[in-house]
Amino acid sequence: MRPWLRHLVLQALRNSRAFCGSRGQPAHLPVPQKIVATWEAISLGRQPVPEYFNFAHDVLDVWSRLEEAGHRPPNPAFWWVNGTGAEIKWSFEELGKQSRKAANVLGDACGLQPGDRMMLVLPRLPEWWLVSVACMRTGTVMIPGVTQLTEKDLKYRLQASRAKSIITSDSLAPRVDAISAECPSLQIKLLVSDSSRPGWLNFRELLREASTEHNCVKTKSRDPLAIYFTSGTTGAPKMVEHSQSSYGLGFVASGRQWVALTESDIFWNTTDTGWVKAAWTLFSAWPNGSCIFVHELPRVDAKVILNVVVCANPKGMKIKSGSMGKASPPYDVQIVDDEGNILPPGEEGNVAIRIRPTRPFCFFNCYLDNPEKTAASEQGDFYITGDRARMDKDGYFWFVGRNDDVINSSSYRIGPVEVESALAEHPAVLESAVVSSPDPIRGEVVKAFIVLTPAYSSRDPEALVRELQEHVKRVTAPYKYPRKNCQRQFLERSKGVNCEVRSGGNEVQPQEGPIDLRRLHEKLMDHWSAPMGSIISSTLKMSKACSFQTASPGSLGNAGKSKRISLALTT
User: Fold this and answer.
1) Beta partners for 383?
2) Where is 131: in which H helix or E strand?
3) What band does 180 get if pLDDT is binned at 50, 70 and 90?
4) How would you classify residue 465: left for phi > 0, otherwise alpha for psi between -120 and 50, otherwise beta?
5) More confident call, 8 vs 102
C-alpha cells in the first residue's frame, strides 16, 4: 500500500480495543472520513499528487479492508437490476473479489500485459464495471464504446487504437467478426454471454473458474488508464487519453462537493457505458463510499441530463437560474479571446482552462497520436474547450454555445462529419451538410441538407428520405440518422452566377454576382419562418452545403455550371 495511505488504513485495521474507550464506548473514529479527506484534498489541488496511484488498489481495496474490519456501514457498493426480477448487489469486499477474478481472466486466459489496450463495448451489464476495475488491476488501458457502433465504427477504432482485445455481447459479436480480419492488432475476443461462439472466449465461464487471488500492478499516477474517442465533429474521431490519477482522483471532489455523496448514498447515472459520464460516476461515487445503482435500461427516457465538466453549483452555493455555476477546483477557468487573453466580466468569449505553468493533474493527457490537434486546442496559457460563454462579476458562467457544430441528441454527441460521410456513400447524395435542429424531446436532432445527384432528382421525396435514413442507420451508429420529416426547398444556380430561392409558390428574384448572406437571409425570412431562415442562412455559410466557395467575409463566390440544389431538410 502507498505510504501516504498506510498510516490512515492501519488505524482502521487495528484490533477493536484501539477503537474503544475505557468503558467500552466507541472512541472518535473518523478514519474513513480522513481517507476521503485525503483524496479530496488531492482532487482540489491542496495536496500533491502521489507518484504512484491505482484506483483499484488505493481506493476500492481500502474500502474493502475497512468493510472487512467492520469499520464501514454494510451498504452495497454496486446494485444492478434489469427490470424483470434479476438483481445483483455487491459490497466493496465482494466487488474486490469479483474484480480480482476478472483481472485473472484478463491476465491469465487472455495474456494481457500492462499497457495493452482493450475495447469495452457492453450494455449496462455488471460485467462492464467488473472489467473496468480488472483493467485497472492489470494495467490494461480500457477503451469504452457505445453498443450502437457499426462495423465501420468498430474497424476504425480498433485500427486507430491498435487494441489487442475486445469484450462485447452477443448482439455486437457478429459485427466484430465481420471486420476482425482487417484489424491485425486484435488477438483476443471475449464474449459476455451464456452461450458460446466460435473464435471467442466466454468471459462468464472463465470468471467462474478464475482464482480470487490477484496482485494488483503498480501504476504511476500519469500512466494511461483509459482512451475515449471523440464525437468526430471536425473530422475522424480522435483518441483522448486519461491517466490513472486524472480520473481516479480527479472526480473525488465533484462527487463530494457537487453531488454531495456520502457512504449512505446511492448514485444512479442513466448514461450509456460508452460515454465518459459512466466513468465519472464510477470515479466520483466509489471514492466517497457511495453505491452505484444501475438499471439495465434498453432506452433512456430522461428530460434533462446534467452535463457540467468544469463548472458547477456546489452544495450551499447560491444558484443563479440559467447559469452553469462557478469554476470547480482545481480548475482555473476563464473567458478568453482567440489569442488567449482574459476578457473582462460580461464579455462573450471562449471557455478556457489554465494549463500553464501547471497543468491540472485531473485533466486529460493529450489527443493520442495527434500532436497537431493537441497544439491546436491550446492558446497561450489556456486549453480552449470549444464552448463559448460569458462570466459575470460574481464568477458565474453563462453558456452561449459551441464553437463547433456538435449535436447533442438525448445525451448522444454526434459529429456532423460522421453523418455527412455516411450520406456521401449513398448514390443519391452529391453533397450534404449536417446541422442541429431543436427538438422538444431529445433537445437536438440531426438535420441533413442534401444535394441530390441528377439520377435521383425526380425520385419520390418521402420514399427517398426514408431510404437515406435507413442507409445512415446501416453504415454508422443508428442514433446518428436524420430524424425529422422531410421538407423540400430549391436553390437554383446558372452559369451567370445568379441565385433564386423557391418555397411553395413564392419566389425570390435572381441576384447576379456574389451573394450577400445578410440580404439573402432577409429575403429568406420573408418567405420562411424565422427558425427555417436561420437554419438556411447558417447552412449557406458552410461552403459544402451548396457547392459555393467563400470569396470574402459575408459573400459567396461562383459555383460553376448550372445545377439544381435540393435541400432535403430532414432530421
Assistant:
1) 353, 378
2) helix 126-138
3) very high
4) alpha
5) 102
d(C-alpha 222, C-alpha 370), whole Å:
18
Alpha-carbon span 201 to 504, nearest angstrom: 60
**Chain centroid, CA 41 distance in Å:** 26
Using CA atoms, how far residue 497 sits from 234, 384, 393, 514, in Å, is 30, 39, 50, 8
pLDDT digits (tens, 9 = 90+) for 85-106: 788 999 999 999 999 999 999 9
The DSSP-derived string for 302-335 is -S-----SSEE--TTSPP-TT--BEEPTT--EEE
At 411, give phi and psi (nearest 5°): 75, 0
Q: Phi and psi of 268, rounded to 5°?
A: -115, 120
Q: Is the peptide bond before 357 cis (omega within 30 degrees of 0)?
A: yes
Give the containing element (helix H, strand E) for 240: strand 239-243
> What count of residues does the chain have?
571
Q: Classify residue 236 as exposed, middle or buried by CB count within 10 Å of its CB (0-12, 13-18, 19+).
A: middle
Cβ proximity of 436 and 414 under 8 Å: no
Please give the Cα distance from 546 to 372 (Å, whole number): 30
The candidate with the shortest Cα–Cα distance to 134, out of 98, 91, 163, 86, is 98
User: Which residue in 479, 497, 476 sits closest to 559, CA to CA?
Assistant: 497
Residue 497: per-residue pLDDT: 29
Q: Kindly report, residue by residue over 217-239, the tens digit of the pLDDT.
A: 999 999 999 999 987 766 788 99
432-481 residue pLDDT tens: 888 888 888 888 898 888 888 888 888 888 888 899 999 999 988 888 88
pLDDT of residue 130: 96
Cross-strand partners of 366: 241
How would you classify the pairing of strands 429-439 and 412-414? unpaired
Q: Does residue 330 have a cis bond before it (omega within 30 degrees)?
A: yes
> Quick one: pLDDT at residue 106?
97
Matching residue, cell 481495496: 61
Residue 120: closest CA among 242, 276, 315: 276
Q: Any long-range contacts for 153-159 (C-beta under 8 Å, 24+ apart)? A: 153/476, 153/477, 154/121, 154/179, 155/179, 155/182, 155/183, 156/236, 156/237, 157/119, 157/229, 157/237, 158/119, 158/183, 158/185, 158/186, 159/183, 159/185
Neighbours of 532 (CB within 10 A): 17
Task: Name the nearest CA neighbour of 211 among 293, 350, 98, 130.
Answer: 98
For the stretch 518-558, pLDDT in tens is 444 444 334 333 332 222 223 333 322 332 222 222 222 22
Give Cβ neighbours of residue 488 (< 8 Å, ≥ 6 apart). 461, 566, 567, 568, 569
> How far apart are the C-alpha atoms of 517 and 540, rounded to whole Å?
8
Q: What are the angstrom distances between the C-alpha of 462 and each of 449, 484, 485?
A: 15, 11, 8
